[in-house]
Amino acid sequence: MTAPNHRWRNFKNVLSQVVTFACAILVMTPLVLVFYHIVKEGFTSINWAFFTQLPPGPGDSGGGMANAIVGTLILMLLAPLIGVPVGVLGGVFLSEYGGSRPNWCIRFAADVLNGVPSIVWGLVVYGLMVIAWPAPFHGNIKFVDTARHQVTVTNRTGVSQTFEVGAKTRLNLHGIHQFDALRTGRDVMIWYREIQGTPVANRISSTSVWGLCTAAIIRLHNSVSGFSALAGGVVLGFMMIPLIMRTTEEVLQLVPGGYREASLALGISKWRTIVQIVVRTALKGIVTGALLALARVAGETAPLIFTAFGNSGWAHKLTEPTGALPLQIYIFAIGPYPNWHRQAWAGALILLLLVLLVNIGVRFMTRDRFHNKI
Predict the structure, then answer these.
(1) Residue 204: per-residue pLDDT
(2) Helix extents (H) in the chain
(3) Domains of the chain with CATH codes
């Protein structure tokens, strides 16, 4: 090798190191600046009252975000209960089971869902859990003739009217209530949408198992519908599923195939091989993926506006609207009061520290305890 060629290769090596180092600094600089600014502005506003008092009113001094901190912790506990099991099991299916075409469709759907704006997730769960479903109208039904497909209904004032029920008929009883009548076989289901007044119906109009189950599901849904911590946890859990699924699949595929072959050769069933060999080997990667998903959704504000809604006081049940740090930060940040702005910076710092503590705590619990003994 000639000396000029050797010097040229050393020069290219040094140049590539300088360029990659500069790119790393360029990537880290905004993160460091944001972290520094949050710590600088938020640390001066943190005191004991911030952790023990409720948010201050307009123009008031003092106060805190105790309810928002508790609400965020509740949401961060509820979300993994939905996102982690579904995401991990989905990743196991993609890695260990399924055909090429179904798996490709699932991967494509997961990748698309990863890019869906968070506000869309909020609107979906808003329609599923916040809005009450049309309930069965039963108490004022005087007569149902399933043979002729006729139904006689009576409103609150006692006015009756008989309708011929088709496969799906829209009924209107003197402008008092609007009905959807759905005929299934010999059963007639009546669903109301209130226009004026309040229905007084509670009984079931259909005697079929399908009708009974449908009415029971709707009643259960409507008993927990509305803005609530439960709806907030569900939307954050839904957002975690695609990311956990894809990361779980990737880390499981990194497990050497020899591990699976050796286990199967010893007569161990496939499901036990997956649970006790493959998943345990890739456990750290799976936990890392779950943490990444949790860190991603912990600061989401838009979906919580449509689900958790926020609360200036304490939420005593999971079915009540609850405060959350992202919501409270958003409300205070757009407010005109200096005290609210200071509270918003403090809330941002606490939210950042919560995510950091979750990462440190889980990594500590899943560390290789036998590393030093080997």
Answers:
(1) 35
(2) 3-43, 48-52, 66-96, 100-114, 118-125, 209-224, 229-253, 257-265, 270-273, 279-281, 283-298, 302-305, 325-333, 338-365
(3) 48-130+227-367 (1.10.3720.10), 141-224 (no CATH)
